[in-house]
Structures are given as structure tokens and as C-alpha cells.
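User: Just a sanity check before I run the rest of the batch. Below are the C-alpha cells for the first item. I only need the designed sequence back.
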């Protein structure tokens, strides 16, 4: 039996359908956040836990690059690390996220320490880093294709935060504004690479499974936030309202 695969257009449609059905813009926590219904405790919990994900993105990309024997692929991919880490003293998505943390009343040093991160958040994010480090390159790259769907949610977030929360301003929403241009650049290359290299049914199935896995990583983080801070079931060791505030 031959390993027949559909054409690239059908494969791309399959990947986009995964995002349409599974991307975390559909999660009720995001509807609550963007609609202005979150309490400040819930906003702070989101900022603290999402920080852990943001902080691991450049580590994930460094792990990926360490596996790439093609120097051109490394040259292209390393811009992702630069986008998040910035220069030695300025810029970068991580610093912008800490400006958001400061804007919502949290001590940036507390947030950066990761002490308040929920166990479920840590587990999901660490699983993503391991996936990218250990899985075949096609699957590792395909897992980042959630960026196909990111600009829309960033636009909704900027609009929703500015409309509903006093802390929102150009400085505190800078992370999301930068991702409006960074994510399309990154995903255009990655999508083309995956479409060009996943030419067998086996590889296409692996890429689709990787993208599905990544949507589950993102969804699981929001499920944990909802259970912990909307429903009030904060797990042991996680941040509790009043901790880590600016003095």
C-alpha cells in the first residue's frame, strides 16, 4: 500500500480547520477577558501564568535550533528568539510582558520568578518544550502553526483591554501590537516549510497531530485558569490574590 497524500492545498486546509475548531480564541476565559468581565484578580492570574509560557518560547526555539543541521534554517529561526528576548538592554516580548505585569499592579520580579505559576500551567508548557526538543522536525515546526490564528486574537485582545480596563494603554498592550507583525512573518515561513516537506500521508498526519497537540497545550492553560481563579479552586503553591503586588 502506497503512502498517498493529498495535495498541498488540501493539507493546508486541514491545518487551518484544526485552528478553526480548536484554537484557544474559542475558550470562555478569553471571551470573559476581552469582554471586560474578568476581575483584577483573574487578570493578574492570567498575566502570571501566561508569563511562564512567554518565558519558555525562546527556550523552545533554542532547543529546536540545536537540532537543525541546516544553517539557513537556523538563521531564519533565530529571529524568533530575538523577538522574545530582545537585545541585551532593550526590547523583546518578555520585557513587554513584564510591562503588562507592572501595569496590572504586579511586581515584575515576582512574575519573572515563576513562583506563582499553577502546576497545570507548568506541566503543559514544559510538555510543549519537550515536544519541540524531541519530536521529528516536521512535527516540531508544525506545532508552532498556531501562529496562523494568533493575529486575530491579538487584535481582539488589544481592542477588548483598551475598552474595558483602566490599566490598558499603548505601553501595557505593546506585546500584542508587536505580535501583529511578528507572528505573520514567522508563520509564513513555517507554513511554507511544512507544506513543502510534509509530502507523505504519514508526515502530514504527524504535522496535523502536532498542531492539535499545541492547541491542547494552550487550551489546557486556560482550563486551569478558569478552574483556579474563576471557580475559586486555586491549587497548592499557586499565586493567591494579594501576593506579588507592587509596593
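Assistant: Here's the designed sequence for the first item:
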Amino acid at each position: 500500500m502506497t503512502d498517498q497524500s493529498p495535495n498541498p492545498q488540501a493539507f493546508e486546509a486541514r491545518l487551518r480547520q484544526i485552528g478553526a475548531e480548536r484554537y484557544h480564541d474559542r475558550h470562555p476565559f478569553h471571551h470573559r477577558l476581552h469582554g471586560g468581565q474578568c476581575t483584577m484578580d483573574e487578570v493578574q492570574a492570567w498575566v502570571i501564568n501566561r508569563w511562564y509560557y512567554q518565558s519558555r518560547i525562546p527556550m523552545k526555539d533554542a532547543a529546536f535550533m540545536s537540532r537543525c543541521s541546516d544553517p539557513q534554517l537556523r538563521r531564519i529561526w533565530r529571529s524568533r528568539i530575538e523577538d522574545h528576548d530582545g537585545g541585551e538592554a532593550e526590547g523583546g516580548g518578555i520585557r513587554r510582558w513584564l510591562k503588562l505585569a507592572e501595569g496590572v499592579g504586579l511586581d515584575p520580579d515576582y512574575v519573572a520568578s515563576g513562583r506563582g505559576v499553577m502546576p497545570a500551567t507548568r506541566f503543559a508548557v514544559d510538555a510543549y518544550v519537550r515536544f519541540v526538543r524531541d519530536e521529528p522536525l516536521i512535527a516540531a515546526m508544525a506545532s508552532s502553526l498556531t501562529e496562523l490564528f494568533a493575529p486575530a486574537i491579538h487584535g481582539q485582545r488589544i481592542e477588548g483591554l483598551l475598552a474595558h480596563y483602566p490599566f490598558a494603554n499603548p505601553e501595557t498592550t505593546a506585546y500584542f501590537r508587536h505580535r501583529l507583525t511578528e507572528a505573520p512573518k514567522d508563520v509564513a515561513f513555517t507554513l511554507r516549510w511544512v507544506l513543502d516537506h510534509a509530502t507523505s500521508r504519514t508526515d502530514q498526519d504527524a504535522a496535523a497531530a502536532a498542531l492539535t497537540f499545541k492547541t491542547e497545550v494552550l487550551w489546557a492553560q486556560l482550563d486551569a485558569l478558569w478552574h483556579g481563579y474563576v471557580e475559586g479552586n486555586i491549587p497548592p503553591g499557586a499565586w493567591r490574590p494579594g501576593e506579588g503586588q507592587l509596593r
